[in-house]
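Bit of a strange request maybe. I'm writing a small parser for structure token strings and I need a real example to test against, not something I typed by hand. Could someone generate the tokens for this chain?
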Amino acid sequence: MFRFYTLILSLLVLQGMQAQDFGYTKSENDSLVSYTFYNKLPIPVTLTVSKKSTLDLLLPSAPIVCSPTDSIIGVIEIPKSFIDADPDFETSDHFSSSVSYGKQLEDSEVEDVLYELPFQTGKRYKIIQGFNGKFSHSSDQSRFAIDFKIAIGDTIVAARSGRVVSAIEHFTERGGRDYRDKANQVVIYHDDGTLAFYVHLDKDGALVDVGDLVEAGQNIGISGYTGFTTTPHLHFVVRNFRDAIPIRFKANKKIGKRSGVWVKK
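Reply from user aminoacidic:
Good idea to test on real output. This should exercise your parser:
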């Protein structure tokens, strides 16, 4: 029960992310106000800018990939004449931008690997919703997600080695769709550019920090009950950029294809 979401950027104000990770810097001359996008993360991110008005602003017409620890100079440029003509000029009235971790991969770039189950050895849990689950796994972002009925307080482990790019743990609430962006989670970036999302963790339930390198089987979080959910569980999904992809597990290559079954590690 989790919707993938991009991280929304308003110019010079970052929402839902570490302010030091990526954002904008501003410069200007006699004719232009220019914004440079920076990415301090050791992974690529994709910037999308959407026009909201009829002003002839200099905006990128398609999503742009910013390489790890790099920047895009002059990604947004506003003629100063527009600003001078409107003392109440607000950038948010004319365009918006969002950032997504990673970039779209070709199918051939996605490695065929066997994953560890995302919980500790010796544990046994029920899959309450698997691939193409009718309740909330019908979107492109969650089509191949798996919901494991893991109790609050149990330990979550990395299903594959990689680098932590997000560790959100401050939320306490849960409920209906209004809470879909309020789930504590850990996101791990893999060597091939795919991303694993471990969602609905407990308050203060992240056991890793952004930038950490983790190994498969390493403890990374504490299961919880936050966000869009009606019962405590772990929502686990691997994505190629924004779209969920099918994966296979070492314990049993058919795990995820059926709901209502028990799995043991």
